[in-house]
Amino acid sequence: MKLTLDALRVMDAIDQAGSFAGAGDLLFRVPSAITYSVRKLEEDLGVAVFDRSGRKAVLTAAGREMLERGRRLLIEAEDLEDRVRRMATGWESEVRIAVDDIIGVSRLMPLLSTFYEGACETPRIRLLTEVYGGPTDALAAGRADLAIGVTGELPQEPAMRSTTLGWVRFLFCVAADHPLAAHPEPITADVLRQHRAVVVSDTSRTLPRRSSGFLPEQDVLSVPSVSAKLAAQLGGLGVGFLPSCVAAPEVAAGRLVARDVGIQREPALFKLVWRADREGRAMDWFVRTLSTYEPILALLDPLSAAGESDTDPRE
SS in 3 state form for 102-168? Predict the structure, then answer.
């Protein structure tokens, strides 16, 4: 067979990283091994799958078609491997965990240490950082088995199970030396429109992307993470809503100022969600442990502390 699963993994890594060297980092291989895999695939198929004429490696039309269909094969192969292993041992071959950017993967390190110190027989754990609808999208598309910090409605398929974790509140903040820091409150939409908004980009790939936090005709600075949004607002590059768990220390230190813009942003309900078809002993451990995991719960308001809204107005 000319097309192998390993070749598809290499193509997928190059597409994600944008370069052969970046793909090598993702797959823990030297760049020459990546180059060899692509060259051999193209020679075997007689088709160019990447256009190397520019600074980035870009898929050709044939390569894009191959990868889009191939990604489904990769998911099915991983599912088959996982199903066989669960049938034999009860332990999954891999658990993929999508973490909302507000929570951050670093908070899971003590939990992973406990997991590895136990009698775990799951050889691979993969952590993903997602934003907005990204955790839900990762579950629906098969990139993740478990997601922490899901907001909004869940898709009808595949079947999922969930438990609520708590609420995230939001503060509208500006840098201490920003013109709006001393502007009379409430600050109107007409005034806000004169100042740049900082927004975090949704990482969804298959589900519709969410966007909010800016007004028509308002300049927008889009950033990839909440930490980047915080840095931009601390630097006076723009304004917007920040999670209170992120903004409160900066407000207390005087680096940010919370302002009344006449709009009450409802808190977002964060859920722990997992795919019903991926349940095994490792998944059971993570669900039970994360449901009461203090480093995450400490960021959230208790379920009884907020209203019924389930929006995600982090911008």
Answer: CCCHHHHHHHHHHHHHCCCCCCEEEEEEECCCHHHHHHHHCCCCEEEEECCCCCCCCCEEEEEEEEE
